[in-house]
Design goal:
Layout (H helix, E strand, L loop, with lengths): L12 H9 L5 H5 L5 E4 L3 E2 L7 E18 L2 E10 L2 E8 L4 H4 L6 E10 L2 E11 L10 E4 L8 H14 L13 E4 L5 H13 L4 E4 L15 E5 L6 H8 L7 E5 L5 H8 L19 E4 L6 H12 L3 E5 L14 H11 L5 E4 L5 H12 L5 E4 L12 E7 L6 H8 L10 E5 L8 H8 L3 H12 L23 H17 L7 H11 L6
Parallel strand pairs: 2-3, 5-7, 9-10, 11-12, 13-18, 14-16, 14-17, 15-16, 17-18
Antiparallel strand pairs: 1-8, 3-4, 3-6, 4-5, 6-7
Helix pairs in contact: 7-13
Length: 519
């Protein structure tokens, strides 16, 4: 890190002196040289989608011309193209562009798209070959404090070269060559092989379903448990998996919709929470609309518009077949309705009574775009990724929980296309406060907090995941008081971890520990 800059590829003695003007004389000082600003060129767009402003494209160039106009003015022009269209590019006083740009080669370019000489074009953009890691385009680009003869582009090149030449940081995690998969669908011989690998410790990582929880599975030196879609597992199931460790393992729960019990345990200090507060790059928030069951015309009109654009639609129902006991839409009836409503489009039906191979075949047809509309039950709640699906219709929405509807809504809008969710209650009465709340937010944590208020968190010391809270005086709304109590307890424990000076408190804690497993 204390190496002189002259040993960085591309930095000669002349440039080294210029860096010294900025107070940068070593590799360490170069890497620590903080940018004064950043330009965000990370959003690579299509030419057909261009709007005036700063843009980034991935293109090929053709029709490259260069001409001398007058003293002090040299113009280079080219046509940049991608699969969606073409746009004119103009450079002033950069004649080298004519020989620099190679036909049929992919380039990134970043610059301002706007009106120039009565024509929409991009003037003097920055250009880089797309087959190399970009430094000046297609990323968040740092802007540095400069000095005469040393601009930001030169500084970026030097920083990039320094990183490429630097010794790689050694990998602290061992190479994990032994991964086993354990699911209920494996053949007996495959299951035995997986069980043996887990028990003997030759398998370092196990990925599986509920099959990992069975009594037959013994895990050698279990240190970390990761539970995806936490709300799909019961308290006893999660506890059983953790009990396979010799001592309490690290536990990571992942979910878009925390169960009420999880929120309560978070408030009481048993769980720490980390929230991913941003959507994946390019995703748009899903628009949710409540539709009366007797007023579907506008919804159907919008569905038809999206179908004609080549997009796909999910329709989810609470029942498979019509029931005399429950007034709610059935998948079979809605399938007939959608097939009649959209005669020129293909409609599929998917539910839990179908055989596994049938379900897989129908789902694959939808993924492959052979089905335009898929009417289903909640079998599509998780684990389904169809980026081309942009509309989710939830029939009988009052029959679903908030968390369940949020999971269903998450099946659409998984690309840069706008996603829409229509929730249709079973009757035409005014929508409930619960449905109105669902339509007002895309935040699963907010919905879980509402669920916490409506359903209660369940028994913190038992296995109920919702229901009345088993506390006599305290309430979960006392968040500030709970946080203060937690901080006070942590400070208290840090001074006397074993409670040697407080035998009465130690006895009480010991008694609680014999009956409590909060995770």
């Amino acid at each position: 890190m204390s190496t002189s800059l002259r040993y960085i590829k591309g930095v000669g003695q002349a440039q080294e002196r210029l860096f010294a003007v900025l107070g940068v004389t070593t590799v360490e000082e170069l890497i620590a040289y903080v940018p004064r600003a950043y330009n965000d060129y990370s959003d690579v767009q299509k030419i057909a989608q261009l709007k005036p402003g700063i843009v980034t494209l991935q293109v090929t160039f053709s029709n490259i011309t260069a001409r001398y106009v007058r003293r002090g003015l040299h113009i280079t022009e080219a046509l940049a193209s991608d699969e969606s269209g073409s746009v004119k590019i103009v450079w002033f006083n950069q004649p080298f562009r004519k020989t620099q740009l190679v036909a049929n080669t992919q380039y990134f370019l970043s610059g301002e798209f706007g009106l120039s000489r009565q024509r929409m074009s991009i003037v003097s953009p920055v250009v880089e070959r797309a087959d190399n890691l970009p430094i000046h385009t297609a990323r968040i680009v740092p802007i540095y404090r400069e000095t005469k003869g040393l601009n930001s582009a030169s500084i970026r090149k030097a920083v990039n070269a320094a990183f490429l030449q630097a010794d790689r940081v050694s990998e602290t995690l061992p190479q994990c060559d032994s991964v086993v998969l354990l699911t209920g669908s494996l053949k007996p011989a495959q299951k035995r092989q997986a069980h043996e690998a887990l028990q003997q410790g030759s398998a370092k990582l196990a990925v599986g379903t509920h099959a990992l929880i069975t009594d037959k599975v013994a895990i050698h030196n279990l240190g970390l448990v990761i539970v995806d879609e936490q709300h799909r597992f019961g308290v006893d199931q999660r506890k059983k998996l953790q009990s396979k460790a010799k001592s309490m393992p690290h536990v990571l729960h992942m979910t878009a919709t925390p169960i009420p019990r999880t929120l309560a345990l978070t408030l009481y200090g048993e769980l720490d929470i980390s929230i991913i507060g941003v959507m994946p790059l390019g995703r748009l928030p899903i628009k949710t609309t409540i539709v009366s069951p007797n007023s579907r015309a506008n919804m159907y009109k919008h569905v038809l518009q999206r179908l004609l654009l080549g997009e796909q639609v999910f329709v989810v129902c609470p029942l498979i077949t019509e029931s005399d006991m429950l007034q709610a839409p059935s998948a079979e009836n809605v399938y007939k309705l959608m097939a009649k409503q959209f005669k020129d489009h293909s409609v599929g039906l998917l539910h839990g009574k179908l055989k596994a191979d049938q379900k897989e075949a129908i789902m694959q047809q939808f993924i492959d775009g052979k089905l335009d509309i898929l009417v289903a039950t909640t079998v599509i709640e998780v684990g389904v990724n169809v980026p081309n699906a942009t509309i989710m219709i939830i029939e009988g929405a009052d029959r679903f929980g908030l968390a369940q509807m949020h999971q269903l809504r998450g099946r659409v809008g998984r690309s840069n296309q706008q996603g829409h969710c229509y929730v249709i209650p079973s009757d035409s009465k005014a929508p409930s406060a619960r449905l109105r709340a669902f339509a007002s937010t895309n935040n699963g944590f907010t919905l879980s907090e509402l669920d916490l208020k409506l359903r209660g968190p369940g028994a913190l010391y038992g296995t109920m995941q919702s229901g009345a809270l088993d506390l006599r005086v305290a309430t979960l709304s006392d968040t500030k008081l709970i946080a203060a109590a937690r901080a006070g307890a942590e400070e208290f424990i840090s001074k006397d971890e074993n409670l040697l000076h407080y035998p009465v408190v130690a006895e009480h804690v010991s008694r609680i520990r014999t009956i409590t497993n909060l995770n």
